[in-house]
Write a structure and sequence with these properties.
The chain has helices at 2-13, 19-26, 42-61, 68-86, 91-115, 119-146, 170-188, 193-209, 213-230, 232-252, 257-267, 276-294, 305-312, 341-377, 384-399, 410-425, 430-433, 436-447; strands spanning 150-152, 155-158, 321-325, 328-333. The chain has 448 residues and is mainly α. The protein has one domain. α2 runs antiparallel to α3 and α4 (68-86) runs antiparallel to α14.
């Protein structure tokens, strides 16, 4: 008995290991290092230390690392990655590509899964995602207001946060993930609902000023899914509040009215009258599909898309995208990826890689939704962790339709997959993971 009591006291007094995940997220508040978007940043280095810290804890505690299901779901892409690394054009490209993919899709998610012990631990990185989004969003709004952001249609008004124009999607990704987390926290629990709702409404402004059509679509779709999972009555209330906030934001305050209207209308013209950025994206998608047709099973090898791009792209592809503003002189940034994760995997890893990754992500989604359903039917119905995890996973899988890995913000993909993996794969006993009063109530109901 005394040994159990000592262990309990030690667990309560020791800082939660999930704070290591929070540290990785917090480092994304810093400007990227000298390597810019082309090399590892502070958060990438911290994510490597996170994996090492998790491994040392496993050795010290002599714990079984992962369940069989977790090993299968998270480990599915490993074989395909190894095959594609061998087929890379150079050993260096194969090794760097293998390390990057393992970091984002296997090692860091597994570390997050193992370091998050319970719902309380889960909420720490979830709230840190909201805090990071508020920080980056505040910088982005200041950039728009003072015209010190990235160049957009000849004006330095695009909100990019600390990521700069070389990672123009960085701030949009951070803010969207923070907004999705805030919505999940607000819908799933009444304890911090007012704060979470306020954060979500505040994040609408920088998300709008990012002028990222893909982030708008992915966030809107994810929030609709979260509302549907939370229940019809609550969904109607939140939808009404969101409409009212949008009217005040755009109509009343006039936030980016003219430019925003043009950007919104461009979404409906992507197939009729696409702009050059959309033409480039379509061209790179076609090039990726052409690479796959030449190497259907294993693709052209990791890091092979840039090398094979010109041999498969049509003349419609421009030489690169314009990068300027936010303290960066004008330059042309080459287009080195198809900006679609599914097509990037298909072109570089072939059908073997796409099936492996799709099976892993689909497995996570099915298991996460199954646990959410079980939680709704249990005596303890605190759904905030479920809605955050499922929301992050849905957002990420939607975002993969218009983006891929690259840049400092990529480490957030690994954290999101790790949080989703904890909800989907950790032992699910909602009565024992609930707060003590609710747990006693559930046990009393079982006894009766």
């Amino acid at each position: 008995m005394s040994h159990a009591l000592t262990a309990t006291v030690r667990r309560v007094s020791a800082p939660p290991p999930a704070l290591a995940v929070v540290a990785v997220v917090a480092l994304l508040a810093l400007p990227p290092g000298g390597s810019g978007a082309g090399g590892p940043g502070p958060a990438d280095v911290a994510s490597g230390l996170l994996v090492l810290y998790c491994a040392l804890r496993l050795v010290r505690d002599r714990r079984r690392p992962l369940s069989r299901t977790a090993v299968i779901v998270l480990g599915l892409p490993v074989v395909a990655l190894a095959v594609s690394a061998v087929g890379a054009s150079t050993p260096e490209a194969g090794l760097t590509g293998l390390v990057r993919y393992l970091q984002v899709f296997v090692l860091v998610p597994a570390a997050v899964l193992l370091l998050v012990r319970d719902r309380g631990d889960f909420r720490l990185p979830a709230w840190s995602l909201v805090g990071l989004a508020l920080w980056q969003g505040a910088i982005g709004v200041h950039q728009y207001a003072t015209r010190t952001g990235a160049s957009y249609q000849g004006e330095d008004i695009r909100a990019v946060g600390t990521f700069g124009p070389q990672d123009v999607m960085g701030m949009a990704t951070v803010v969207a993930i923070g907004l999705v987390s805030a919505v999940g926290l607000a819908l799933g629990s009444a304890r911090h609902r007012a704060v979470a709702v306020g954060c979500a409404l505040a994040l609408l402004v920088p998300l709008t000023l990012s002028f990222s059509r893909g982030a708008w679509i992915a966030t809107a779709l994810t929030c609709v899914v979260q509302l549907a999972l939370a229940g019809l009555r609550r969904a109607l209330k939140v939808a009404a509040a969101a409409v009212a906030a949008a009217i005040v934001l755009v109509g009343g305050l006039g936030v980016g009215t003219a430019v925003l209207q043009e950007r919104l209308e461009s979404i409906t013209r992507v197939t009729v009258a696409p702009d050059q950025s959309v033409v480039d994206r379509y061209t790179m998608w076609t090039a990726a599909a052409s690479m796959w047709r030449e190497h259907p099973l294993t693709g052209v090898g990791l890091k092979g898309f840039p090398e094979h791009r010109d041999g498969h792209a049509t003349p419609a592809l421009s030489s690169g995208s314009d990068v300027a503003g936010a303290g960066t002189p004008y330059r042309r940034q080459p287009l080195l990826s198809p900006h679609n994760m599914y097509l990037l995997v298909l072109s570089e890893q072939g059908l073997l890689g796409l099936v492996a990754f799709a099976a892993s992500w689909l497995g996570l989604l099915v298991l996460a939704l199954r646990r959410l359903w079980r939680t709704r039917r249990s005596p303890v119905r605190d759904l905030d962790c479920a809605l955050v995890a499922c929301g992050l996973l849905v957002w990420q899988l939607t975002e993969f339709l218009y983006g891929d890995i690259g840049g400092p913000s990529t480490v957030l993909t690994a954290v999101c997959l790790g949080l989703a993996a904890w909800w989907a794969l950790a032992p699910a006993d909602d009565a024992t993971t609930a707060p003590a009063p609710a747990r006693r109530q559930a046990e009393g109901a079982v006894a009766r």
